[in-house]
Write a structure and sequence with these properties.
This protein is an alpha+beta fold and about 100 residues long. Helices cover about 40% and strands about 30% of the residues. The chain is built from three helices and four strands.
Length: about 100
């Protein structure tokens, strides 16, 4: 069953986060992820607002989790940890 990787992000260091983004995109693509939303317009209706929201679609929850745990993504993430405040989750779709 397909799954969505959903990230809500507040960037606190643009330069370091740029390094994350440069590495994260290829890591996500390598694991079959395809971006369906990436920093576009949004309306916050509930909860904490984060100015950057990203959604990527994977073939399965397992593929998305494997991407997160991969050496390539972990290298990217090392640049984001001190450069952002973020929440990330993976959820299966209903299709």
């Amino acid at each position: 069953m397909p799954a969505l990787w959903i990230a809500h992000v507040t960037v606190t260091d643009d330069e370091a986060y740029g390094k994350y983004a440069a590495l994260a995109g290829p890591a996500i693509a390598k694991h079959g992820g395809k971006f369906i939303a990436r920093g576009g317009r949004f309306v916050q209706l509930e909860g904490r607002e984060r100015p950057r929201n990203v959604v990527a679609r994977f073939d399965s929850l397992e593929a998305a989790e494997a991407c997160y745990r991969s050496p390539e993504y972990q290298e990217a993430l090392s640049h984001a940890r001190d450069a952002s405040e973020r929440e990330l989750l993976i959820v299966e779709t209903t299709d």
